[in-house]
Amino acid sequence: MKSFDDELNDAIQKALHDSFENFERKPGASIDQKIYEALDKPARVRPLLLSAAAALLLLLGFGVKEISDRYASFQSITRPRATSEKLKESDNVVPLHGSIVLSGAEPAHTTKHTAHATAARPKARKPLKSAAPEKTANVQNESPKPAFNKARAGAGPVLPAESNALPVHESEYALPVQVEDTPDAHINARAITTVRLASLPVDLVMPEISYPVNAEDSASQAPEPQRVREKLDFPRYQPSGKKSFAWLFNLSATNTFQSIYLLPNAESRILKVSFPVSTANLGYKLSAGFQTLGFQWLFHYSHVSWKAEYIYAIDEFKADEQGADRYVFERLGKAETVTSKVELAGLGIKKQFDFKGKRTGRFFAQIGADYSRQLQSGGQNFVTGAISAGKILTVNKTTDLAIGPYFEYNFNKVPTAEYSIKVRPNQLGLSLGLRINRTK
Amino acid sequence: MELAELVKACQRQDSRAQAVFYDRYKSRLLGVCLRYAKTVAEAEDIFQEGILRIFAKINDIQNPQAIDNWVKTIMVRHAIDYYNQVTRKEMLSTSHEDVKLDWENNDYTLLFSKLDISLLLEAINELPDGYRIVINMHFIDGYKHAEIAEMLGIKEVTSRSQLLKGRNLLIKKLEQKGIKQHEIF
């Protein structure tokens, strides 16, 4: 039963609603004029966006040119070297990295197979082979057995005159055996007794170990042994130089993680929201710019998309009996999947921190903020904060590749077609960056 | 031009379509602003900003048939935003005495039935910000107290309390203007 207050409220509600339902008031001409002028303004934003896009393309074009120039110069350096190597080979000169095998470790009965195998190969590439399998090549410093000597004696001067392999000498210095994987080799593997390997004569300065001759009590005078502690290789911060300058090109593959805000709405009721795993959540971000004084200035273009499923309540209810005097009352709903996508262009600034470890190499961490504007008509502004960290790989003297995870937090809530729903599309992904260093 | 075509043209930022769209809704939306605002100047400010907001968000519309409600909802929300930004502090810092009505000798249920709309609007505009907003949202635009509480960032109890106090003050103001329940306009 309604109270007097409720009755009065209902009466007032009905009266006011009826009175104001079609209440209209025509705005003055000055207001119309202001609105028309304001509506013309978004068109002026276009040149800004176009110029930003042109700058982005220009930077990307410059990057491509820079890379192609470097590739051309790299080729001009490497080409003569390759030519000279070819010349050496044709002059029957053994290249330093040729597969030279110095070994006489072939038993007499395996020589036949080996000779047969080597005869089938092109002459120019005929090294003296051992039938020993690769595993036995690791057997070192065993004293030669009679079988070994016999085989070696039988082999004699095994190098044909036209071969470009080095002649075999009974040298103490032998390189590891490189073996063809032939069935014969496996059969005769046991016959190989040893391959004597020794290091090539390299000047190694050995530390001199001496004892104090005249010391009465050497133990008491000896310094206390220092405790050798292995230091942890923490990468250390490396401040960027004041004259450092670099061109930057980034590509980030992103996945959208949404926060959905459901606002009050008299017309729609949402029972449930779910986030399906879908390719519709994937996006990307292209950036180009420069770095100076440790700060990165980047133009960027982003494609962000996301998908969500909403269950809208309908005016149907279900009651399930749950034993005596108990039931579960449920409001039914209708599912609707909404996919949204926005294209953004804007400008960002980031601070990069470089770290370097002795053994672990170089790392980076970034923190920054972007300002973007939606490219679609009537677009809104976006302000995002981004963090990234990862590994820096050196491509060549001036070019680095930076790769690492990337997270972008969107400070703005994006309105959707349903006014009562707003979405905050945050991005998580992998960033790949190319940095071309140019010192001023 | 059909409504759907008009909306699509506006989404393409067709200036002619925008003008047609504006002409279609301007009177109705200014009416909404006049209810929520304290003064005509304030209403015109809200109206201008709200119109631009509508055009900024028109790309989000997927069902052009629901554009009428959508447009009105955006304008109401913009008026509330304006209120939240500009006058919220004023509302929170101002306390209003509860108006006592003579329930026994008067039947107020008939008071609003045949009132002149300009008098009603004048009385509503004179209400303090908090009362005016809640009365507009609940009595005219049909929002529930839970929704009002959420949108204004207040408690539901506060919304109910504001509505009752605002209602009583509105009745009092109408009485002060010489309007009684038996008067018929």
UniProtKB/TrEMBL annotation, chain A:
Residues 107-147 are annotated as: Disordered. This is Uncharacterized protein. It comes from the Bacteria.
Automatic annotation (TrEMBL), chain B:
It comes from the Bacteria. Keywords: Sigma factor, Transcription, Transcription regulation. GO terms for biological process: DNA-templated transcription initiation. Pfam families: Sigma70_r2 (PF04542), Sigma70_r4_2 (PF08281). Belongs to the sigma-70 factor family. ECF subfamily. PANTHER family: RNA POLYMERASE ECF-TYPE SIGMA FACTO (PTHR43133), RNA POLYMERASE SIGMA-70 FACTOR ECF SUBFAMILY (PTHR43133:SF46). This is RNA polymerase sigma-70 factor (ECF subfamily). It comes from Dyadobacter jiangsuensis.
